Amino acid sequence: QVQLVESGGGLVQAGGSLRLSCAASRRAFGGYLMGWFRQAPGKEREFVAATSWSGTNTNYANSVQGRFIISRDSAKNTVFLQMNSLKPEDTAVYYCAAQPPSRKTYDYWGQGTQVTVSE
């Protein structure tokens, strides 16, 4: 089974930046997708961004488009989420997730990393 470990979360002032990392236990191939999700207290988990290992296909939630950038280092089995122009509404636990080529949903999830954006 794929194991995912997130890191890079922390406390930042509004307008600042953070870079999250997601290390996978093994490399994804073919149509394997890696995604970032987030969940604030009392709210539903929401999609943030996703990418293929090739980096050719990327997708962003409207709320982060233009501010966040998802990237990857396939050789290191690592996916990144560069978060710029952070807003207090971005405060949440951020999760890395993986969608196997044979599946239509994200089946593997990391433990999560806390991101807090102060006013």
How does the SSE layout of this entry go?
Layout: E1 4-7, E2 10-13, E3 18-24, E4 33-39, E5 46-52, E6 58-60, E7 68-73, E8 78-83, E9 92-99, E10 108-109, E11 113-118
Parallel strand pairs: 2-11
Antiparallel strand pairs: 1-3, 3-8, 4-5, 4-9, 5-6, 7-8, 9-10, 9-11
Short description:
This protein has strands spanning 4-7, 10-13, 18-24, 33-39, 46-52, 58-60, 68-73, 78-83, 92-99, 108-109, 113-118. The protein has no helices and eleven strands.
Keywords summarizing the entry:
single chain; 7-stranded mixed sheet; 119 residues; 4-stranded antiparallel sheet; 11 strands; globular; mainly beta
* Main sheet makeup: 7 strands, mixed
User: Tally of extended strands?
Assistant: 11
In angstroms, what is the radius of gyration? 13 Å
Mean pLDDT: 92
Describe the global form. Answer: globular
Overall helicity: under 10%
Q: Could you give the distance between the termini?
A: 40 Å
Stretches with pLDDT under 50, minimum 5 residues: none
Number of helices: 0
Summing up helix and strand content along with how strands pair, one would put the structural category as mainly beta
Sheet-strand content, in percent, reads over 45%
Oligomer: single chain
Give me the strand/helix succession: EEEEEEEEEEE
